[in-house]
Amino acid sequence: MINKINNLRRFFRLPYPRAAQPPLRVNKDTAYRVLEISELGILLAQKLESPLQIGETLTGNILFHDHHSEEIEGSVYRLDPRGVIVQLSRGISPKYMMKEQIYVKNTFPVFFRYTVLENFKATK
Q1: What's the burial of 55, exposed, middle or buried (CB within 10 Å: 0-12/13-18/19+)?
Q2: Model-level pTM?
Q3: 77 with 54: CB under 8 angstroms?
């Protein structure tokens, strides 16, 4: 039980289905697909033509499905098989995180259900 408590994340992470992954535009020529968001972190798909390195600083805007844009700033924290984890110093507002959770849940109910179940089984 204590191990489960220690493994709880501080912020909820919202994964996106492929059809809903918003772009992170870091300059006019470079955009990354956002695979997951939380208030203080994002998971990006790595781009072979614009690879990111640990410690690299990113500043840009995430453009969401409703054309709302959130400005983020952070640095590359880790590279893993899923993509690039960016720890944010200026992140996504909690209010907008809730709106995105509702959007994903309502628009992609099957995706959200199976993603949550898979993550829950992995923590047992």
Answers
A1: exposed
A2: 0.81
A3: yes
Element at 100 (helix H, strand E): helix 94-107
DSSP 7-31: H--SS--EE--GGGPPEEEEETTEE
Contact 84, 60 (CB under 8 A): no
List beta partners, residue 70.
62
What does the pLDDT look like over 82-112, one tens digit per residue? 899 999 999 999 999 999 999 998 998 887 6
User: What amino acid is encoded at 24 in this protein?
Assistant: L
HSE on the CB side for 47, CA within 13 Å? Answer: 14
pLDDT at 113 exceeding the cut of 80: no
Longest dimension (CA), the chain: 48
